[in-house]
Each structure stands twice: as structure tokens, then as C-alpha cells.
Amino acid sequence: MKSILRNLLLAATFPALLSTAMAGLLGVNPGFPKITYNNASAVALTYNASNLTYAVSAVPTAIQFAPAEAPRIITGTRTLELRAIVDSTGTLVSGVPGDDLVITGTITRVVLGVTNVYSGVLLTGEVSAFGFLESGVTDQYDLLFASTGGALAAFFPGGIGLNVTSEASTFSGSFGTNFNGRAKGNLGSVLNDTIAPSITCPADIVVECHTNVSGVSGAYVTYPNPVVSDNLDPNPVLVSTPPSGSFFPLETGLSFTNHIVTSVVRDASGNTNVCSFIIRVQDTMPPEFADTNNPVVTSCDVPLVVTNDVGQCFATFSFYRPVAIDSCNGLQTPIPASVSAIDQFGATITLVDLGGGLLQGQFPITTTGSNVITFTADDGRGNSSQAQCAVLVVDEEAPSMVCTDQTGTFKPILTNALSCIEGKFGCNLISSNETIWFSSVVNTPSGYKAPFSVRFFDQQIELSVNGSNLVISVPEAIVHFSNGLAVATTTFTNGEWVTVSKPYCYDNTFLSGVGFDVPFNLGGCRSSKCHYSRCDNRHHRPHNEEIRATWCGRFEVSKPGVVVNWAWSAATYTQFSTNYSQLCVKPIDARTGSAYHNRDNAGTPECFKPYVVAGARGDGRWSKCGDEGDKFTGALTHFRKANLGVGTICLGAVDFDPPMVADNCDGPVTITSEPPSGSLFGPGDHVITSTAVDASGNSNQCTFTLTVLSPLQVVFDTPCNDNLNDNTCQPDVGFNSMNCPDDPSTPQHVTRFCSGDRICHIVRLLDCNGQDVTAEMAPYVTVHIDVTEREGTYHNSFLVNDVPQNYSWVGSPGSIMVPICGRFQYNLNTSGFESGTINGPRFFRSCVWVDYNSSPGVPVGMEDVILESR
User: Rounded mean pLDDT of 143-167?
Assistant: First the structure.
């Protein structure tokens, strides 16, 4: 439990304290005569917070007139009544009207044989001081009274002192609420005051230096008076030095100065007491930047933004050195700040003092962060202020660009390119309640042995009729040409057509298909050729266009060099299934007499044959009107060689050099081109737009012309009859570096010779579609031959000797092949070639490459052959 002391005199000095009492006992020590009293009632002592009345009602029990004299019992009508006005802070305000203390009873005293009787009102008094101590359930109080009358008044000439002990007390230290308790104690005469008044100084005080007087820094300090009290004197005299409100200086160069304040209190009896406390004047407040005209001070809530010097990667930025003010010197002398600057990477920016407080530096362009100016002001007492200002330097200059026209070529992409074949449906009407079944087949010429697979993907069919286009997506498909299977199968699994064909199948093989529910009537044009016996007049509407369909997709063949033929057809059905696994699609055509033969073609939905209205054969041929068997609406007019999916498309990836770019800064410049380098281009001139963007986002553009030369495939006829499609895969490693390695995905044929033999090199040139264009291109191209001796494997070797090319009879100086009879030929003379390479790590390689006479040195086709000497 906390103890709370309270003193009447303190309360008189500070009447505005809070309701929770913070004083103590007066220290009353009653002398003789001494009267004891008691009351065990729980309300013997009460305090009424409403009217501020403190009251004690008790019974005086005995009196002892002198220390050596026995106590005498008080008889008769015995009362002790005490009343006082105590405010909510525990401070004595006044007495009550009439006597504040009244004691009654009867006392009989015999002195030297003389009997003295004191009866009635024994003692009265006016209260002059009040003290208390809250200490749990038993509290203490003491009071002083001036004696005003009663039969015993002569025994109390110096006043009355009274102690109260309150048990079972409800006092909690607050005079803001009612409380009560028991009451017992004693009272007696108070004489000969030798007790010094009490004095309690305030705690040490710390103040900030805030002013300057005649050049001296310091602070004016008003402090609270010490708390004083006296056992008798309600108004003891207090003197403090230096007085409150004085100026307390801060010594020069120090961060603080301690000043001792001494307080002396004297009561009416001349008793004194003293206390002291410290007032510390300190300077812990940093200076303040308040230069309202300086942009690096007032405008730096957001970064300052400046633009770069023309042609430079920096901005020359000038600013005045910031100054600060300090309250401790009375705001009289500005404090110049020290200034430094760093760039966005932390490197120091040199600042030059131009005089008059003007600073200047070269601030780099910022891209990922900001330049930072840091300024610091120090007041000389260990206090400093630091502030920063971010300076963003914006680069507003675009990079310069130089575009130059370029020439390039490509190896044709003969896989995964888009193939498209168009077909017509004739003049038949296809009704909205019917379904069109589109199916495609592949056929591989003889000589391509299984296993290999053909994948058909990115497929879509576009129907065009009466100016409207309908687009149909087709599921992906794959055909596995496998060995050792007795029966061909077609399944629809996980949204993909999967056909497994028999080995050495030279018939049409089903590839892919899709059913299309016709949303409205299609076609029905007038036709002079078709007169179906089963057709009514609705099949011959004169004003509708013929239906056209274009099927496009991409091929991927797992085995290099395989050539596939592709065709598609369509048929209409009155009833069909959306569950493709229930169509019973026929996987392959079957020749007459074959175990697989029936009259239906590959791709026929066998389970829905009864519902066919008209259609086209699976091999893509026309079905004429009046033919026996199924009736067809028309399909592809002829087979189209797909050549691994290219169809009639000739294009490939072409790389080109980016434009020359210069920027005023050393930062990265991003160059993009549209179309980008490596895009698919066909032969001809293409406009390339290049954009350069520097690290600050400034951009510039230029354009140039990319002339793409049509590639020519070099195909050996002799000496090794290399695979005709050796050039159909992606470009060989080193194509552009003239290294001419053989394509590792194709068979490598080796020609063996004896040193001195003549080896006849004969090549043909093919276009993108595999057509022989040797004769047509001969006047416009040059075909070169380069022979080297190498060491390593055929697919991974290094140069040993660059062998001089000599020819016998057929050839041209400078290692040039000559056109003869629609071919290019060069008879290589091997005299002087190293013998026996067939038994060692070395070998010879003939590299044949072709360029256009209009663009010499730009290879547009290349192939090699290996030569081993015996």
C-alpha cells in the first residue's frame, strides 16, 4: 500500500492540488494533561465529500494530569465532538460555526488532600492545523487547536494537540469521496515549540537553453516553491536563491550548466530548515534550417528535377550553401552548413565554392535512384542538424541512330510452317440441320521406312460463302508409321487424333478430322453440270455463291528428309456424333485384294455411313455427278506436295545487324526492331523500323531496307548422292561463318579415294519447294567449292589444312564450279592429298556454297561431303 502524507500548511500554500491528498501528518506530540478517548463504532470518524466536513465522535475515558500522577476516570456525560472543513485535497479550509472541539464529562482530582471536581464542558478549541496519513485499513490523523474555554482551559495555555487512530477505515487517500472508520487516540497540551518546519524542494529541473541575454545564452526559469509546513505556524516564511523566474546562463562551449537553488524556511518560533535542488540549463536542441529562399531547403519535400546539359550526361547545378539558426543564441547568428553530394551509386560529386556562398557541381543523370545533397549544421555544443535534398537529373536527349540497308538470306523453314490447301463444294445446298465432316489424309512416297511420325497442328478451316467467313478449329493429330503392326488403328484420345499405320503403307492414311454443325443454309448456286436425281429445287438456287473452304495447318515430321503428300475432303451428314471416339473412322485406304480392303476411303466415319448426303473422297479427288456410290459435294482439285508442311510458302528466319547507336550517356541503350532480327521473311525487300531507347526512356527511330535473297538448296548428285532434303532442317551451325558442317540429323555419306584420283562434284540447286532451278539460276549465281583437311569426327572437327583446290578438265579458277547440262560441276584433282586418312583421325571435306552475283559473299545455300583417302 502506498502512504500518502498531507499537511495543512502545504494545502494553505497550494490550494489547487488534486483531490488525491499528497501531504502528511503534522507530527503532533501531545503533552500533559493528556486525555484518552475511544469509539469502536464504524462511523466514529466520518468525512462527507459533499459538504467537506471531517468529524469525530468519541467518548473521553481518562485523563492523566502529570507523568507521575495516575490517570483519573472521566465520568458523567462524556462526549468528544470534533468538526473541521477539509477540502478535496485534504487541506484544512476552516473550522465550523462555534467550537470545533468540545469535550464534556466529570473529573474528580484530589491534590494534597484537596478534592477538585471538573464537570460539564471540560475543554473547547478552534482548529488551526490538520494532517493525515493513509496506511491501509488503519489511518492516522493529527490536529492542532487553539484553546478557547472549558473547565480545563487553564491546563492548555499553549494550545491543544490531538491524535486520531482510525481502524477499519475506508479512507483510500482521496478526499473526493466519503469515508469513515473507528476513532481512538489522545489529546494534550502543546508547549515549547522547538520543532523546525519541514521543507521539501522540488525535484531537479532540466530546461532547454532558449534565449540570449547580452550575448550570454541561457534560460529564464520559473520553478515551483518548495513544500513547507510547521507543527504550529501555519505560514512559515520561505526564501529561495536565486528566485523563481531568474535568468540561468549556459556557459560558453558547454552542453549544460548546473545551477544550485537554495531554499530556507523559518517558522514563528524561529526554527529554520533548508533544502536545495539543481536547475540544469542544457542545449540538446539541434539548429534549424529556415532558409526560406534556398530551394535545396524549402523545396525538397519532393526531389528537385533539373535537365541535363546539352550533349552531356550531367547537369550543372548551382545552389547557395544552406544556413541554420539556433534558439540558444537567440536566433542572432546564422550557422553555415557543411555540404556534400553523392550520385545515385554513392560516388562523391565535387562541389566548387564560387564565392558568396554559391556552390556548384556536375550532377549525373539519374535512372535508378537520385543524386543527394547532404547539409549539416553544428551549434558548437555537440548538437547538429542534417537534411538532404534529392536532385533528379533528367536526360531529355534521345540517342542518335544510323540505319544502313542490309542484305541477308535464310535457310527455308521446311517444318512447322503453315500449309494451306483450298477446295470447293460445288453447287449443292448444305442445310442448317446437317453436319459437314472434314477429313484429311497423308501419303508418303516409297523409300521412307518406319518408324517415323507426322504431326499436324495449329489447324483451322475457313469457309467462305456469300461474303461470310466461318472459322473452324481442328483437333491436333499424329500418325505413327510403325513396324510390325498387323492392323492400322485410329482413335480419338485426350482431344487428339492418333492413327497408327501399318509398315510400308503407300496408301492414304487418315490424319485429322472435325465435324461442323451447319448454323444456316450454305451454298446452293446454279450449276449446269450437276442434276441430282435425289435433289429438289432447293438445291439449285441461282443467286448464291459456291462454297469455298481453305484448310491450313502446320506439319512436324520426326524423321529428316521425309516428304509427305497431303489432301483433304469433306462430306455432309444428316446425323452425326460429337463424340469422335464413336465415329469408327477408317484409318487407311486399302488396295483391292488387301486384307483391309473395302470400298470406303481413309477418313470415312464407318458408323455413320447411312446418314451421308454427299461428299468427297478421302484422297481429295473430285466426285462427278452421277457416280456410283456415295454422292460428294466436291473437294480438293489435286494433290499438293506439302514437303514437310511448307506448301507454297518460302520464308525463313533472317538475322540482321542492329543500327549504330550513340548516346550522350554511357548507360545501356535498348535497340528493338520491328520486325525483329530472326523473324520469318520471304525473298524481297522488307522495311525494318528500329527504335533505340536509352536508360532515361528517350527514344529515336530509323528505318532501313532488308533485302532478303531467296535461298537455294545445294544438293549433291555425286559423288555421294547425299540426301536431297539434307538442307530442309534448321540452319547448320556455322552457316553464316562459312564453316559448312554437315547437318548431324541427316545421314553422312563418305566418298573414298586414292590420292591423285579425280573426284567429280556435281550439284543441283533447289528452290524452297524442292523444285530444281539449277538451269534458271545459273546466270545469276556463283557456286564455290572449298576443300579442307580436318581432324576429329565428321560432326565435330577442327581445321588442320586449307587445301588448295585444283581441277581437272571441268572447273574454273578460284574454286568455282561451272554449269554443265543443267548442273554445276567441278572435277577435284586430289594430287598431293594426304594418304590413309581413312585409318586415322583426319579426313577431307568438300564444302559447296552458292551466292548471288548481285550480293557476293552472302551464302544462300551450303552443303558438304566427306572425303576419306585410302
Answer: 92
DSSP H helical ranges for 397-446: none
Residue 596 burial (CB count, 10 A): 15
What fold is seen in the domain 713-869?
Immunoglobulin-like (2.60.40)
User: Tens of pLDDT along 63-103?
Assistant: 999 888 999 999 999 999 999 999 999 999 999 999 999 99
Cell of 209: 537553453
The letter for the amino acid at 572 is T
Residue 496, C-beta contacts closer than 8 angstroms, at least 6 positions apart: 475, 476, 477, 478
The residue-averaged pLDDT of 800-827 equals 88
Confidence at residue 631, expressed as pLDDT on a 0 to 100 scale: 31
CA distance 693 to 691: 7
Q: How confident is the model at residue 755 (pLDDT cuts 50, 70, 90)?
A: confident
Which amino acid makes up residue 29?
Answer: N
**pLDDT greater than 60 at residue 730:** no
Report the candidate in 458, 456, 435, 480 with the shortest Cα–Cα distance to residue 579. Answer: 435
Are 198-282 and 713-869 equal in CATH topology? yes
Contact 289, 387 (CB under 8 A): yes
Given this model, what pLDDT does residue 447 score? 52
Quick one: pLDDT at residue 14?
32
Class of domain 198-282: mainly beta
Whole-number Å distance between alpha carbons of 141 and 135: 11
Cβ contacts of 514 within 8 Å, gap of 6 or more: 437, 438, 461, 472, 473, 474, 475
Q: Which pLDDT score, from 0 to 100, does residue 673 have? A: 96
Q: What is the dihedral of CA 326, 330, 333, 336, to 10 degrees?
A: 0
Asked if 341 and 361 count as a contact pair (C-beta separation under 8 A), the reply is yes
Instruction: Domain 288-394: give its CATH code.
Output: 2.60.40
| Res 482: pLDDT | 79
How many other C-beta atoms are found inside a 10 Å radius of the C-beta of residue 824? 27
CA dihedral of residues 641, 643, 647, 648 (deg, nearest 10):
-90
DSSP class per residue in 788-849:
EEEEE-SSSEEEEEEEPP-BSSS-BTTTB-EEETTEEEEEEE-TTPPS-GGGSSEEEEEEEE
Q: Is the pLDDT assigned to residue 191 strictly greater than 70?
A: no
C-alpha distances in Å from residue 207, one per residue of 213, 226, 330: 16, 18, 15
Would you call 668 exposed, middle or buried from its count of C-beta atoms within 10 A (0-12, 13-18, 19+)? Answer: exposed
Reference 238, options 209, 285, 289, 202; nearest CA is 202
Domain locations along the chain: 4-189, 198-282, 288-394, 426-641, 652-708, 713-869
DSSP state of 398: P
Percent of the chain with pLDDT strictly greater than 70: 80
Phi-psi region of 748 (alpha: psi -120 to 50; beta: other; left: phi over 0): beta
Neighbouring C-alpha atoms within 13 Å toward the C-beta of 632:
25
Those residues with Cβ within 8 angstroms of residue 239's Cβ, 6 or more apart along the chain or in another chain: 263, 264, 265
What is the pTM (predicted TM-score) of this model?
0.42
- 3 state SS of 298: helix
Sequence-separated (6 or more) residues with CB below 8 Å from residue 67: 32
Q: What angle do CA 329, 330, 336 make, to 5 degrees?
A: 55
Cell 486399302 sits on residue: 590
Convert 218-232 to b/e letters by CB count within 10 Å (16 or more is b).
bbebebeebbbbbbb
pLDDT tens-digit map of 380-409: 888 888 989 999 999 889 999 999 999 887
The rounded Cα 242 to chain-centroid distance in angstroms is 63
Question: Residue 182: CB partners within 8 Å, gap ≥ 6?
Answer: 39, 40, 41, 42, 44, 45, 166, 167, 168, 169
- Say if CB 399 and CB 692 are below 8 A apart: yes
